[in-house]
Amino acid sequence: MKRTAHTGWHQEDIKAAIRKTGITLKQLALSNDLSESACRMAILYNFVPSGEVAIAKHLKISPHELWPQRYHPNGTRSIGRNSTSTKAPRHRQKTKVA
Fold first, then answer.
1. Does 15 fall in a domain?
2. What CATH number has the domain bearing residue 30?
3. What domain count does the chain have?
4. What is the full per-residue pLDDT of the chain (98 aa) written as tens digits?
5. How many other CB atoms sit within 10 Å of the CB of residue 80?
6. Is 35 within the bounds of a domain?
7. How far is 5 from 16, CA to CA, in rounded Å?
C-alpha cells in the first residue's frame, strides 16, 4: 500500500491495522475512556482528536503519520477546534431580533 506524506493512511488501512492487533474500534475507544464511536468517527471525520490520538497510540505511530492533513509534523493539530490555522472564523447567528 502506497502512502505519501500528503495523504497519510487510507481509512480502511487504519481499520485493518487495528483489527490485526485483535481489538475492535469500539473496544479501543472504551479502553481509552471515550465514547464507543469515538475511534470510528475519528477515522471518518476530523473532529474527534481524542479518538485520533488513541488510534495512533495503539498503533505506536504519530497522528501526523496517519493523518498528515490533520496534524503538523510537531504533533499539533492543523485543523479543528485546537488548531493553529489562520482560517476565517465561522459565521455566528445574530443575537438581536429585528
1. yes
2. 1.10.260
3. 1
4. 545 556 789 999 999 999 999 999 999 999 999 999 999 999 998 889 999 999 999 999 999 999 999 988 888 888 765 444 434 445 556 666 65
5. 15
6. yes
7. 20
